[in-house]
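Practice record 12: protein with adenosine-5'-diphosphate.
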Amino acid sequence: MQVLKFGGSSLANAICFSKVANIIHDCQKNSSVSTVVSAPQGITNSLVALIENLDSNGDQVKTLMTNIQQHFQQILEETFTNFSAINKNSTLDEFNQLIEKLDQLVQGTKLLEHCPTSTQAQILSTGEKFSVILLKAFLNSLDLNVQTIDPVNFLTTDDKSVEPIADLDKSKSRFLQAYSSPANVSLMPGFFGVKPSGEMTTLGRNGSDYSAAILAVCIEAKSCVIWTDVNGVYNADPRLVQDAQLIKKMSYHEAMELSYFGAKVLHPKTISPLSLHQIPCYIKNTHEPSQPGTLISNESSEGDTVKAISNLSNVAMINVSGPGMKGMVGMASRVFSAISLADISVIMISQSSAEYCISFCVPGNESDAALECLNEEFKLELKNELLEPISVKRNLAVITLVGDRMQQQKGIAAKFFKALSQARVNIIAIAQDSSERSISAVIRDQRTDDAVKICHQNLFLKKPTIDAFVIGCGTVGKELIAQIQKQQQWLSDKNIALNLVAIANSKHLLLNKNGINLSGNWQNLLTESKETFSLDKLNQFVSESHLNNPVIIDCTSNEDIAMQYDAFLTNGFHVVTANKKANTASFDYYHKLRAAADLKQRRFLYETNVGAGLPVIDNLQGLLRAGDELVQFEGILSGSLSYIFGELHKGLSLSQATLKAKDLGYTEPNPAEDLSGMDVARKVLVIAREAGLQLELSDIELEPVVPQELAEITDASEFLQKLPDYDSTFQLQIEKAEKNNQVLRYIAQIENQKCRVNIQAVDSNHPLYSVADGENALALNTRYYQPRPFVIRGYGAGASVTAAGLFGDLLRTLSWDQEH
Ligand code: ADP
Ligand code: ASP
Ligand code: MG
């Protein structure tokens, strides 16, 4: 004997009914089958709306009735058109009687101006009764004789009008009396039963699962199969988490916790009777019956300690607090007796250790009733201000981790809360049951999607994700994008998901929440995009796409973008930048960025501000963290000037060397920007500030390579045309140096709390003597590095090294420990 239950999603239309009939046909070959059916999807919602509108005007009720009738008729018409073996006449007869009955019930309540709960149950059960009529016709057409079982004859609950509990013993003995020898194939409408008084009652929304479990106990079934529209129970709600994984086996306990805390796939009360009678339960997919599904039994599968994560929405939290509660015996009992008397179910409880506050969660639609009954219960205490006004927080959700193997395991709560903090989800309350099978956190409902997604990512996939937004598609930006593409395999081997979700230039913005296809024609898509870059747009995109680790990578040298970092960080983006403008803006802004990053726990990373990909900032920070101090600094910080100054001593004039550097792509489009020394000044300021000096850009003593009036020329060709005029003057400096066996170098220095950038003639003993050809070199004299400095040397410019530096920073935004 087997019980099969088909939910509304398995009975949505004629094709579904036919699939269900075929499944029953197959199953009854092996053992007799009792089938429980729900209403076709959507019908119960319409019937609920009908009841809610019974006291409104007649037209409204009429429209609702017509809609319900049409919904049924549509399924019937589809059936008669596509399945000629169905007995149309008898099916229509039974259907018309059902509709007539519904109409009578509705008219009756209109006359009475009242709809008692038993009448409500009769109205609400119309959908299930319809399913029985139609499925019976389908089964008959397959030559199966069908016995119908009416729950009114046996399925007995307690007296509660909301979410009643079945009396299993009574139901079983009544069942055996009414159906002493069940047929090979029987059909029963789910969702309702009777109270001890004989009045009809529903089992609560989604209650057909529970009906099936009760029937399974009554007929002593060898298994109960819940057929639905997914392949089984997943480790997270598959509607929220695309890559949720199917659970092959879970224990009764796990299934109970999961359904209790919101997994819609099972009604919360279903498992208890099955567990009590050791009846295995399968969850299977009506649309893919060959899939193995999930087995719920005494056994849980090996493997993950956390089995699944569930979410329960529309929850309210009630707070009872006040000085009167301290040490007062029986407070909790009074609170919960009052709530229980009002028939309100409590989802979870948390109490502060000082006994000053009891908080508990109830379903959102019961919060008003809860508040009312507590205000009544504690009328006196409230009046005497022994209690603070009882407060309700609405629009909350409970996120729960479930797993038998969580018992005695350390660190799970830590991972859970870390994941929530990473999604920047605020935890309002927490609770863990003493069996350690579930840990719950109460959060704001609107953050549920993000919370579930990131918890799933951290606890199951263990795959950290970066959602990258590249701004600026010049040489560096393009190279970075190419590196991201090139490294996809490596990233995937390391179990890291790096999705490039946005690319922007000064005119266009290309967005794709699933990651832009980098092997496709993203450059064309970007140019064709009508969107333009704005923070508002990015914010909207991040929140709609539920991105949890958004990182802005600024590959521009644009000041406007740099001045938005504060807002980026405040809005939850990490910022990775090659652009020096932010770190060299006012000290105030410099400070503000760090405060925003700290406050929002976001990373602000700018390794490429100095020495491109050379690890300057990271090393300096490392030393400072270890208590070191920068005593003196000296370095060549410009790749283009390093190249130009090298060429000067190979016999080229300043203008020739500059032109050559420009042709090789080493300079800015206008080499005046390099020769002005401003870029070096910015870099030395970044180092100085990192070392703790409160300096402004204007404090840097800067001697440009060329006279100020040349350095200020904004037009590249004009600059290159005028530069040769300065060659002969500059030549004198070169010759003088060479006469003394020295070379000219453009050097940045930090000494005595001051920064200086100028041309110096150095001899072969000087550490920067041999630094040319585009190399950078940085000598850090620190307290720890004495008497020889800590030297960092290598190419300090160029698209590939800069992009590699950005790539490194990008990976640093992965803030959780990876596990394999
Ligand atoms: P039925 O109509 O068969 O009763 P329900 O809609 O009540 O189906 O329940 C099935 C749905 O439950 C699935 O379509 C799925 O979207 C949802 N669901 C929520 N959490 C889970 C989970 N952890 N595993 C599987 N399904 C889940
Ligand atoms: N039809 C009912 C509902 O929608 C019962 C069920 O589907 O389980 O709640
Ligand atoms: Mg259901």
